[in-house]
Fold this protein.
Amino acid sequence: MPYLTTSPIGTAGGLVAGVVAKFDVPDSTKLAKTMFELSRDTDMTTHFDPDVHTLKAIAAGLPGHVALSCREVAEEDLTYHLSGVCKCGHCDESTNNDPEHGCCCNTNCHDRYFRDACEDTGKKVVVNMGKARAIKLAKIRASRNAELVKLDLDSLVAIEAGDSSEQARVSGLKQTLRDIPATFDLDKLKTPEVLKGAWPSELPAEE
């Protein structure tokens, strides 16, 4: 049976704020041990004690640990972004029977693209579109900034050559790039699938 937990903060153990984690464990003691390790924050030395570190105690919060709880969830209630079959040969992912699904090791894998935007509603795991748009915008800004750096060099060459028309052309291109976050409307994109496929035409194709 899959279990879900959401880390409320980034911890020393490497959990990212708000990420929903999925895991399968065979019994309650191993489940408690898994949760104990996931909840570590500043405490990196205490060994798991099943008589002390119960699920209830972990949910309440242990010294040096974040308060962390989990719940059982049916496979059908998992978002596509948390399940999938990896084709790299060494990932441990649940099968979703999607022949188009690629490698989960690839950060651009459909399952991973908006993983940090996944949220557990208590009934299902869904993609928070506000967070997903922020992830997409960050990727767009990174690409846009790289293109601006290239144009800075073109601008310097034009200035040194005294080519005013080229300076004006480059200046116009730079302004177009600067305007992308305002002109490329992500709010109208209502699903993760549509949002993932969107990309400004002024930028090189997304890698």
